[in-house]
Amino acid sequence: MADDSKPNAKTSESFIGWLRNHFPQDGGYAKLSVAEEMCNIGPVENADCYGKICGICGDTMEIWLRINDGVISEARFLTDGCFSSQLCGAAATYLAKNETLMDALRISPASIMDLMSEMEGVELHCSILATSALYRAIADYILKINGETIQSD
Questions:
Q1: What sign results for the dihedral spanned by CA atoms 132, 72, 51, 79?
Q2: pLDDT tens-digit profile of 86-97?
Q3: Does the pTM exceed 0.70?
Q4: What is the CATH number of the domain that holds 21?
């Protein structure tokens, strides 16, 4: 993952600034202020890989990735879940963008929780859901380049 000493480090402060610009909270739900594609929301056309997970709470998280030369150039998500799930999906895709596959595999639920340490109401199980969907998408990519497939749920 990005080193915090880099000018464009993916820190809690940079993520919260990004969130405030894209996901102002309105009554407990995200109210988008810009086009969804700028917020990492929605499918990626002709994505290189896809991951979908249903969490213990019943929320579903889907993540699409586009990969160029081993680097995630585009990452988007969809969830039918609460504001916490939305934030965790946004965090997972925010952290994954412009990272190598190996660095993206280092993104953990703890990474997401650390990123949102100043925000209230973010649930650990939502960060697990988001990282699980990210890992599943990366596994889908790795299996595809090896001529294999992931069996659906």
A1: positive
A2: 889 999 999 999
A3: yes
A4: 3.90.1010.10
